[in-house]
Amino acid sequence: MGFTSDMFVRPISDIKIPNHDYKTIFKTAQQCRQHPPQISLYASHYHLMKRVHKATTITTTCILKEERDRCSSPSFTSHGLRFIRGKKLLSELSTWRIGGPCKYFVQVFDRNQLLSAIRYCHERSIRFLIIGKGSNCLFDDAGFDGCVILNRIDFIEETKPGIYRVGSGYPFNQLGVRCSNDGFTGLEFASGVPGTVGGGAFMNAGANGQEISDAIYSVEILQTDGRLETINRNDLAFGYRKSSFQDMQDLAAIVAVTFKLKPFPSAREQQKEYLTKRRLSQPLGERSAGSVFKNPEGIGVSAGELIEKAGLKGFRLGNAKISEMHANFFINCGSTSKDMIELINLVKEKVKDKFKVELREEIQYVSPI
Ligand SMILES: NC(=O)C1=CN([C@@H]2O[C@H](COP(=O)(O)OP(=O)(O)OC[C@H]3O[C@@H](n4cnc5c(N)ncnc54)[C@H](OP(=O)(O)O)[C@@H]3O)[C@@H](O)[C@H]2O)C=CC1
Ligand SMILES: C=C(O[C@H]1[C@H](O)[C@@H](CO)O[C@H](OP(=O)(O)OP(=O)(O)OC[C@H]2O[C@@H](n3ccc(=O)[nH]c3=O)[C@H](O)[C@@H]2O)[C@@H]1NC(C)=O)C(=O)O
């Protein structure tokens, strides 16, 4: 989307002339009589309106030019945040290491920054995407024609024994280790999961019979209109890789999650056992996005098993390959998004032909526009 000048019209409060500094306002007005007024003045200036409105206009025009220049440079600051324009590669932001440049990129470290980033996008009708570790996303080689907001809200506080309030950008993996080390059960499975707490809640991450939803006490979310809301677990619905968040029209982002865990002396051993199992059965050192497909429900056979039985383990299409270790992990060996999508579609077709089972993706496609 191109910039138009009216995107940069700002109310006078944003113009760096203090309300009482009439001298500067008059001076600016005198310099720029040719411009028509575009925005209204504050009531306190009303008695000066006739003489001042031209000052407002020209000052705004200066801001427009300044902001347009800033926004077309490789990096610029707005709303107190540093944006990178056109340079950040999505391949650097995804565990699959696939994806072209995004039009804007910004990192947020707390709730207010997240709100500012969303406001920035909202004011300019820029499409935005919140990502955590990008461990479940397939980005396009063409990139993303919007703003990628990288969630780095990564605080953790134990408010009472077994109750943890955690920023949505906190690594899920680390949370699993921390809670198990502290002797609490419920999140042992999280160690080894490469996502964030927010991504985990959004997807209702699970493994080894545990799910994040079983440990959640409440979730703090940010709505697109800027409102913050805390939702109790009882008011949320979860299923296999499914959560209420996926259906919320007004959700901007999950900001923090509070977990309530029970004491369990063997939590640490349990966590280590899960991690060992994961290391033995999953290609963790390779560029993947974890399970590509959800397990089909109600048939008692996993997606990995079906793909293996279809004879596809180790199959390679271009530079995208099905892991020899686990058939539901697809490896990027220098692949494009096109290769990976073709491989995914081919697997779906073969499994459908052979077993009459429709595999459904767990990974999320992020379209470039
Ligand atoms: N069990 C396993 O071994 C593995 C599990 N996973 C799971 O995949 C998920 C990926 O996590 P992560 O890498 O952080 O996510 P990603 O960065 O891959 O984002 C995935 C999706 O989650 C949504 N999302 C991410 N963070 C937030 C947030 N704070 N608020 C709202 N929505 C959010 C985004 O939705 P939108 O597009 O709407 O912005 C995005 O499309 C986790 O559930 C992880 O547990 C991944 C790999 C292996
Ligand atoms: C990796 C993910 O989560 C994983 C999670 O780590 C593990 C461990 O609990 O259980 C799920 O995998 P999974 O169902 O493939 O679990 P596994 O224990 O590896 O395999 C299940 C069964 O399939 C068989 N199997 C698996 C892979 C394979 O190539 N061939 C095969 O026959 C295994 O022998 C086993 O009998 C989650 N995947 C899904 C889609 O639910 C993820 O979500 O990205």
Automatic annotation (TrEMBL):
<dbReference type="GO" id="GO:0008762">
    <property type="term" value="F:UDP-N-acetylmuramate dehydrogenase activity"/>
</dbReference>
<dbReference type="GO" id="GO:0071555">
    <property type="term" value="P:cell wall organization"/>
</dbReference>
<protein>
    <recommendedName>
        <fullName>UDP-N-acetylmuramate dehydrogenase</fullName>
        <ecNumber>1.3.1.98</ecNumber>
    </recommendedName>
</protein>
<keyword id="KW-0133">Cell shape</keyword>
<feature type="domain" description="FAD-binding PCMH-type">
    <location>
        <begin position="97"/>
        <end position="264"/>
    </location>
</feature>
<dbReference type="Pfam" id="PF02873">
    <property type="entry name" value="MurB_C"/>
</dbReference>
<dbReference type="InterPro" id="IPR003170">
    <property type="entry name" value="MurB"/>
</dbReference>
<keyword id="KW-0573">Peptidoglycan synthesis</keyword>
<keyword id="KW-0521">NADP</keyword>
<dbReference type="InterPro" id="IPR006094">
    <property type="entry name" value="Oxid_FAD_bind_N"/>
</dbReference>
<dbReference type="InterPro" id="IPR016167">
    <property type="entry name" value="FAD-bd_PCMH_sub1"/>
</dbReference>
<keyword id="KW-0131">Cell cycle</keyword>
<dbReference type="Pfam" id="PF01565">
    <property type="entry name" value="FAD_binding_4"/>
</dbReference>
<comment type="pathway">
    <text>Cell wall biogenesis; peptidoglycan biosynthesis.</text>
</comment>
<keyword id="KW-0963">Cytoplasm</keyword>
<comment type="function">
    <text>Cell wall formation.</text>
</comment>
<keyword id="KW-0560">Oxidoreductase</keyword>
<dbReference type="InterPro" id="IPR011601">
    <property type="entry name" value="MurB_C"/>
</dbReference>
<dbReference type="GO" id="GO:0008360">
    <property type="term" value="P:regulation of cell shape"/>
</dbReference>
<dbReference type="InterPro" id="IPR036318">
    <property type="entry name" value="FAD-bd_PCMH-like_sf"/>
</dbReference>
<keyword id="KW-0961">Cell wall biogenesis/degradation</keyword>
<dbReference type="InterPro" id="IPR016166">
    <property type="entry name" value="FAD-bd_PCMH"/>
</dbReference>
<keyword id="KW-0274">FAD</keyword>
<dbReference type="GO" id="GO:0051301">
    <property type="term" value="P:cell division"/>
</dbReference>
<dbReference type="GO" id="GO:0071949">
    <property type="term" value="F:FAD binding"/>
</dbReference>
<dbReference type="InterPro" id="IPR036635">
    <property type="entry name" value="MurB_C_sf"/>
</dbReference>
<dbReference type="GO" id="GO:0005829">
    <property type="term" value="C:cytosol"/>
</dbReference>
<keyword id="KW-0132">Cell division</keyword>
<dbReference type="InterPro" id="IPR016169">
    <property type="entry name" value="FAD-bd_PCMH_sub2"/>
</dbReference>
<keyword id="KW-0285">Flavoprotein</keyword>
